[in-house]
Design goal:
The chain is an alpha/beta fold. The chain has one domain: NAD(P)-binding Rossmann-like Domain (Rossmann fold, 3-Layer(aba) Sandwich). The chain has 8 helices and 7 strands. A 7-stranded parallel beta sheet has the order 3-2-1-4-5-6-7, sandwiched between helices. Helix 1 packs parallel to helix 2. The relative contact order is 0.15.
Length: 252
């Protein structure tokens, strides 16, 4: 129970990596706020956590909205008593080149992938600082550390996440707040299958290409979740500003 009595917020918590991380944090003793745009799916994950004997509440929210983020943080404080851990995981992808990308698509990707992290940190850092510290984990990507094709807005946004994480770590380390990014490679989620659809590719072929890396398979959501648990726990007490890559050797 590495996270006994800790209170965690997970955005994008209703599916894939988010759901797996909600379950993993709860299994280590944390109470979890499941945040997602899909209210019904968020409640389903919260119920799943509760069925396993842990504490969870669902808060539907558009993470790019400051009003919604303020409500999420206030709910965590009011119902759980504080915030010790944040996993900024909500994210979207658009598989397009620059000429193909509309300004609206660009802004939406940055709204969910970048602005949302800024807003969460803006409102949660003072709470963590007053309590003596905390851990923030942001979902980057292998494509936040190197380029990728037909995904200009996504690559740009994830590069921003990685460097924003470093800036946050510098600013708030003196307050006892650690900030790190976890950077997955291709993980077997609905979002990965959505990429195949956006590109007009046959799903089976797309997934086979995603598995072409040294470990010769895609990642599982639970494997990313365990990296987040480690970053959230005191086992990583001297780790901040780091970009932890969990990609089966893809970048290598």
């Amino acid at each position: 129970m590495r996270l006994q009595s800790k209170k965690a917020i997970v955005t994008g918590g209703a599916g894939g990596i988010g759901r797996a991380t909600c379950l993993a944090l709860a299994a280590e003793g944390a109470a979890v706020v499941v945040v997602d745009l899909d209210a019904e799916a968020a409640e389903a994950v919260a119920a799943e956590v509760r069925d396993r004997g842990a504490t969870a509440i669902a808060v539907p929210a558009d993470v790019s909205s400051e009003t919604d983020i303020e409500r999420v943080v206030a709910t965590a404080v009011e119902q759980l008593g504080g915030v010790d851990i944040v996993f900024n995981n909500a994210g979207i992808i658009r598989r397009t080149t620059a000429p193909e990308t509309t300004v609206e698509e660009w802004d939406r990707v940055f709204g969910v992938n970048v602005r949302a992290i800024f807003l969460m940190c803006k409102h949660v850092v003072p709470i963590m600082a007053a309590a003596g510290g905390g851990s923030i984990v942001n979902t980057g990507s292998g494509w936040g550390l190197k380029g990728g094709g037909q995904a200009i807005s996504y690559c740009a946004s994830k590069g921003a996440v990685v460097n924003m994480t470093r800036a946050l770590a510098i600013d708030h380390g003196p307050q006892g707040i650690r900030v790190n990014s976890v950077n997955p490679g291709d993980v077997d989620t609905a979002m990965l299958r959505e990429e195949a659809r956006q590109l007009g590719q046959v799903e089976s072929g797309f997934l086979a290409e995603a598995a072409d890396r040294p470990l010769q398979r895609m990642g599982r959501p639970e494997e990313i979740a365990q990296a987040v648990v480690w970053l959230a726990s005191d086992e990583s007490s001297y780790v901040t500003g780091a970009a932890i890559v969990v990609d089966g050797g893809g970048i290598a």
